[in-house]
Structure of NADH-quinone oxidoreductase subunit NuoB:
Amino acid sequence: MAKAKLAKSPWMLHYDGSSCNGCDIEVLACTTPKYDIERFGIINTGDPFQADILLITGGVNHQSESVIRQIYSQMPEPKVVVAVGICACTGGVFKDCYNIKGGIDTVIPVDVYVPGCAARPQAIIDGVVKALAVLQQKREAWAGRRRGEA
């Protein structure tokens, strides 16, 4: 497991695109004392303007597409997106439905994929820890660009 040195606690925003809520229940389980995602310094927020990590469950449908784009655009750089569950990764069992566009990566870039139906809390936490390493890399690259480094 990669260890990330972050200057501040990363804030995570969870959004349900169009799921059956199985993955949402598992995301909620990650916040309980049994799994305790906060031990990694993660702070859960409902404000995209404060979020570093966007954790999305469910696939993209025509109604959620604009909302996902808006939330992503409101997040400050650098930011990381984690697709949780097979529906968020590919559209899942609903991918052939008339109203499903597919996985989250059909709308915004995804940095970490966490497959499963429903994704287990251990897998979700592993994905978020991987996202922390990606966030640190993006922060270093962002800082370098701000300093004028190539």
Remarks:
- The longest strand covers residues 11-16.
- The mean pLDDT is 91.
